[in-house]
């Protein structure tokens, strides 16, 4: 494939499990695939909670933001925005690739069967770095 | 313009509204323009509070950092560092471009007239990604 | 040196001092040097606490993650993972370069003699940006 035809890529490390920080990676990744880019999400630390079965539904907010999770869920509903779990499902359907972090799964005692359907096989930091080196935008969220 | 003459660019997503996380994007963006780079700040989520009229003055600190906002403001004053709102004004004067995130404004019920003077028109995630693809450094703060 | 022989580089801004956010930069930087990349960590804000003498041992967790620092230290021990201070020492031994942020040291009243052995001389944001412009992956953690 020629250089010109290669798709642009974005790779995002998803390290937070809170409601407010769940949206940015999903918004960026789905916007990217809509622009015909490739998008990779690498879930590590608390981010893993978002792809655990039933985990996205339990996402809360840090108290210091001064808004309760209930109030934010209300805003989300009012604005007609998808819930986090609906958004994850849509992102998977759109072709966003989601990789769980192998080391963090071990640390937090999370097993492959605890994760939602559609995510890729767990990978380590080195494999992620290889993907990141081939990406045009790399973010840690 | 020839490849050699093109300015280097930094694009930063500003997602936090706390006192401690308000400084890093401002320091990096102003350092960048001082080095004759272009600097773009994309304000989303709680970051929008920093460019709301009167918002930067109310920035606090998460409790877990173990320092009160008052104590940090004291440190900032003692060190002769600008306040967040002074810093934002200086950054705008220096040519840092500040873009509010359209979707986050809608979600949080923020209107264009609520924002300080000098910021650009709101843009969406896709427009930001286009800018990020042309940048040499892209960060999520 | 020819283009092909130049080592790939990763540059990470370490701005958090909590237990959960201390690991990601260390894991990524050591994975990178294992892959024959160069790795630079730039410690600023609360991140400076990790390279203060005795600081890494005191790293705690934000309450909103819903896990106590004690419980996480237990998980870390159980999983046979290094403590943060052991990990920092190993990273230095492996050749990860650690730079303290000059401005943040001044703001927080931290002196060079307060820092652990093995870290580089403090640098400013502009010097870091120069390093970042030569890096293949740049992250803010």
Output the keywords.
globular, alpha/beta, 141 residues, 4-stranded parallel beta sheet, 5 helices, homotrimer, Hypothetical Protein Ychn, Chain: A
Strands in their spatial order, largest beta sheet of chain A: 3-2-1-4
CATH superfamily of chain A: DsrEFH-like
What would CATH call the class of chain A? Alpha Beta
Overall, the morphology of chain A is: globular
Determine the mean pLDDT of chain A: 94
- The helix fraction of chain A, in percent, is 25-40%
The largest pleated sheet of chain A is described as: 4 strands, parallel
Please report the distance between the alpha carbons of the first and last residues of chain A: 32 Å
Structural class by secondary-structure content of chain A:
alpha/beta
Outline the low-pLDDT stretches of chain A. none
* Topology pattern of chain A, helix = H, strand = E: EHEHHEHHE
How is the secondary structure organized here?
Three copies of one chain form a homotrimer.
Chain A (H helix, E strand, L loop, with lengths): L8 E6 L4 H16 L3 E6 L25 H10 L5 H11 L2 E4 L1 H6 L17 H9 L3 E4 L1
Parallel strand pairs in A: 1-2, 1-4, 2-3
Describe this structure in words.
The structure is a homotrimer of 141-residue chains. The first copy, chain A, has 141 residues and is an alpha/beta fold. Helix content of chain A is 37%, strand content 14%. Chain A is built from 5 helices and 4 strands. The mean pLDDT of chain A is 94. The interface between A and C is medium-sized, with 26 and 28 residues.
Structure in a nutshell:
The structure is a homotrimer of 141-residue chains. The termini of chain A are far apart.
